[in-house]
Amino acid sequence: MKTQVVLDVAPLPESSFGSRTLTWWGTIAFMSLEGMGFALAVGAYLYLRVLQPAWPMNEPLPGLLPGTIVTIILLLSAIPNYFLEHWARAYDLRKVRLGLVVMSLLGIAPLIARVFEFPALRVRWDTDAYGSIVWFLLALHTTHLITDVGDTIVLSVLMFTRHGKNPRRFSDTSDNAFYWDFVILSWLPIYFVLYWLPRFG
Amino acid sequence: MSAAPKVLRDTDIGDLELEDRLRALWRTPRGLMGWLSSVDHKEIGVRYIVTAFCFLALAGGSAVIMRLQLATPDAHVVGPDKYDQLFTMHGSTMMFLFAVPIMQAFAIYLVPLMVGTREIAFPRLNAFSYWMYLFGGVFLWFCFFSNNGPDVGWFSYTPLALTQYNVGHRADFWAQMITYTEVAGLAVAVQTIVTIFKLRAPGMSLDRIPIFVWGSLVTAFMVVFAMPAVMVASTMLILDRLVNTHFYDVSLGGDNLLFQHLFWFFGHPEVYIIFLPATGFVSAIIPTFARRPIFGQTAVVLSLIATAIMSFGLWVHHMFVTGLPRLGESFFTASSMAIAVPSGIQIFCWIATLWTGRPRFATPLLFVLGFIFNFVIGGLTGVMVASVPIDTQVHDTYFVVAHFHYVLIGGAVFPLVAAIYYWFPKVTGRMMSEALGRWNFWIAFIGFNVAFFPMHILGLEGMPRRVYTYSADMPWGGLNLLSTIGATIFFISFLLLAFNMARSSVRGTVAGNNPWDGESLEWATSSPPPPQNFTRIPVVTSGSPLWENRKTFPTVTGLRADRKEVLVSTLTEAEPDLREPSPDPSIWPLLAAIAIGITFLWSVYTPWAVIYGAVPITVTLVGWFWPKGTKEDES
Questions:
Q1: Partners of residue A2 on adjacent β-strands
Q2: B264 and which of B196, B318, B321, B483 could share a cystine (Cβ 3.0–4.6 Å)?
Q3: Complex ipTM value
Q4: Strand partners, B569
């Protein structure tokens, strides 16, 4: 069959940001499936809770301090994360490097607080179903946190090499910041369920 | 930014040189290392299909052994323990290692061709998904052949699957197989969604997307929202077994029905994850052989979407005998019956297409007609078991076995075989034998019905599922023997299919680009397609592009000819928007799959494996993503 050229795409750009790119949509899809996992885990928590006359079953209420510190750090991290996204879109390499280092540190900080959060649950995973589900939720979010902090650190290192000048790496930085917003947002309902729901009876 | 370096575009060279250059760019490197590093969606798709058929052979063989055991009362072909492993392996393999992967495999191969692009989105993730799937399947069957196959049914209910009733690691192996295959399935779903959203040829607006592609898109969304449920269920199961959590331990606040809810929240959409791509095959095949565009395209697409949404509201009908509140049961009865409506709309649209077309009864269409006949029977018994009183009566009997085999084989395997006959020429460049194809159809159709129809009656006569034998004083012997004869005939039809494929791939008539006069873009390129799929990206001007443009085909120019590049388009109107590089072949996805696979396996024996395994997993993932200095990396 003969072909006839009807469209010239040479003037199109080779990289962009946000919903124009493949990676952004891939990130959205992964957020959806991970979000579904979180929603189901929270659903399992509520299901087990409904079956029990008392919740926590035979334990004290979980300690609020470490979890609240994690929440505050995560919420505060949204501010530099916002600027990092902005700088990436402006192709400002110097500020992006700074922003990524700050975000790596702000990723590690809640992980340090998390170390104290598990004991603050005041129950072991093998004590009863309450212990199992609270450890499950916290471990799920910790895995999520570690994964994105690892990604941020690798990207930070990358931006200090010659590869950092590639426009696509700025797009990657933007997507990484976008994903961090999801890390923050997905924590808030888990924080509420773990620490406040038992206090409401 | 520095000044742009000199680039070579398709406008700078002639057609022949362009073709040569693109072939060289997109070709998988030769040798073992090249084979292991391939990211070509067509090669990965074919590997998936071949692997899924190997698992089909193993699961089909298990079914034949079970049927031989049940052919006569008090038989001793296998004992109860082996029988338990066989039906667990049969169900698990068919659902997790054959049905879902084969449907995704067809999407991996066909979707990029049908939307007119050169590669699937995230091709390295695609390669990774295949290795994960392969390792998960091989791992499960290795366990079986070492007499450690899971023996608790394909849905591995608790408390049977907990340690007090299942010592050793059999149920752990089942749970980890789930993790491997669901990671693979989720990865493919993400790739499929992004490919369909962003890599469509210019002009392929939403209303011009082929229905098979719509089916793949809807299915991929279902995978994204359904598969996490089984991962949560199986992870909690393995945690209960290995680190003494109590999610399903009633004595310490757990609940067995939690497992059932989570499992069936995945399990019922799973049926439609298998069925909807099959309806996509049917909607692709019928217009070609009716020689007219599909009747009611919008209605068919909306039916696909409606089915997907409704399928998430049916899961409790698998749990009618667990003592749930009556109001809940009534709701799920209504929703289970309501889902027949969109399926019915699709069937009426297919019939209308055939009725108003000029049908050619080639082998693919015969299998499609067989599908309509068998699936309607499965659908009708589905409406029956949606009713609580009937379900209570026939629950865990052979009536249910008959029902879901009519739905799954009738509804998915018949269209799958039709799809093999239909697209085999595209994949291999050669036609399959029509004469053998007709024999294949009639043997399969008769064998299937003889095997499974008697099971309805056996179920109504009270024969329970999952019994390894029955005594001679039960009135089930005759129908069981008949069923076994049918199963053997049905098995032979697959041997004939395999023979036809093997023979035709060598001796079949050369197919040409479009042997069936199909309407969609995969038929616009050569058979088999070149590594770059299309030397010039097509421009789509209608829902039947090959029928609308029979003399000259509109195409795009301006893409680079010195690196692998795909054209990214806008979501709804598919207007060209970006030119993004496509990744080179890489060994890292395989290494990452090995690291993750070993960690999963090791974690069955110690939870510390997750900590130790994190090191090689991190190394391989960094190796995967770190730029290698190629033109594709350094745009």
A1: B552
A2: B318
A3: 0.95
A4: B576
